[in-house]
Amino acid sequence: MDRRNDRYFKKDQIAENGLLDRRLFLKKGLQFGVITSLASTVSISSAKGEQNSSKNKLSDLAWMHRPGESFSTYGLPSKFEDNVLRYPSKNEAAQGNGVSWTPLHLMEGAITPNGLHFERHHNGVPQINPKKHRLLIHGLVKKDLIFTIDNLLRYPMQSKTCFIECGGNSNSGWNSQPSMAEAGYFNGMVSCSEWTGVPLSALLEEVGLGKKAKWLIAEGADAFAMQISIPIEKALDDVILGLYQNGERIRPENGYPVRLIVPGWEGVLNVKWVHRLKLSDRPVMARNETSRYTELQPTGKARMFTFVMEAKSLITSPSAHMVLKQSGLYQITGLAWTGKGKIRKVEVSADGGHSWAEAELQKPVLDRAFTRFRIPWHWNGKPAILKSRATDETGYVQPERQKLVRERGRQGFFHYNAIINWHVDSDGFVSHVYDKDETKKTNSDISIDSDWN
Amino acid sequence: MIKMKQKKLIPILVLIAIGINFLFADTKNTPHLGKEITPEEIASWDTSIFPDGEGLPEGEGNVHEGEKIFQSRCIACHGENGLGFTADQLAGAKTSLTSQYPEKTIGSYWPYATTLFDFIRRSMPMDAPGSLTNNETYSLTAYLLYLNNIFDENDKMTAKKLVEIKMPNHNGFINVYETETIHK
After folding, report:
1. CATH code of residue A250
2. What ipTM does this complex have?
């Protein structure tokens, strides 16, 4: 790094330890030239190291001298991207019981490809023949009705781009020691797709809601017969009977042939393989709204029906296990989302939270969807702690871990949305750390990762 | 001949008709493809059981039969006496919910006994869900409550009995949806 470049960075620094104006990459002229020439020399690599490139000249490429592959009926990723995978974490005694994490740290943009959408199954993925699938709507209605999938496909549809996040996402954050996994493999029980289907309100109108109907009890057609209660206000507001994901029919592991989409609320409510909706005047008090998906507080009381997923953000690059090979200019990028509407701003800190700079948000910022944020950062080669902090349109601010633990204790299991720290050491190696004063105070050791049945 | 008074009424009637049309516009704009289904057909499908006992089937069971079922169908995952193994600990909580390591078992945590019947019948055992009869489910429910010192060894379990059971942690929950404003 020569001094001339240092001077430019100093001028554009808007928070301590090298955080630069978010619009820097957009500026024109000399500065832009300096930045891009630097950016091309600096890259983030995986800790596993890079493969040596071919000894051939870069201009003499074998694939330019012979015809390429023919057409394919269904495209797959490049074979050179075969490390971009979901990470399953399952119950060995029941192989369909567990989760698979989305590799958020290996992805860009704001949409999750269908093959990488996270999974949470309680007893496996049913292979449902759509011709044998029926949706029953019954209970406190004027008439009980059943629909075939062909019926549903004829209804007027709507699309909603939104995230789905498991209530238990990031829950290793409740542990006394920070998770050592890659960012996506302990925060990737959240994904974002464009979901298309029939607004549930249209079908509820057809069955005719009884006056006392206050809850909708949904049931899936899997081996768990997953059952959960949803308030009728939400069902009438924006719930969709999802048939398509990112333009194609929903895949078996994400609920084929039809699932509920409950924007912004706990993943468990987005019942996959849904086949029965019962209107009731009260919740059914199913296992997964009493014994599970409730959050035990330090008082001994547990929070129940905590549906909304509150604002959260995560720096996906640089993040744990990555290596910054040399000092210089980097882009810090990540995702933010909130179940309460739109993300208003994301701030980033490079000095452990002492100073903050606002990141650029990818447009359009959508309601209850992933919002990609980016900010340029000049790493001076010294240790740094990176943080991101989301604020949503209601004014809610993503909490520091210390605050969340102070308010909720560490036995809640669900709804962990605290700020995540990435520590960059002087060798450029990135790892997950808690704030210093936290690890001192807590010495008990609980392990949440194994508790997924 | 239409009299003047009636003539004046016509536009009003037209407006009313348009108004009614708007009221039902949503219904008319959807294709109405659902097929009506009889209560008898629904009965075998509707397995939801509520805390007041709505949905509980006829039948009965007992602790001894439940123990036999547990030994053959449940113990591999839930461990001896339901103390937990690859699946949840179901009984024998030694710590309170306010301790550093709270043990959330049926006896220490679950607010409703009816949930147990509902869950066992729909989801358990994992390798053959839906294979237990109603009587077997009543027996297994009785045994698990017995392991948690909530049900007497020699009592007969029925729908009526199950509804009468008040779980120790019945008042242990805060309904966040109704008491807080985070969903508004």
Report:
1. 3.90.420.10
2. 0.89
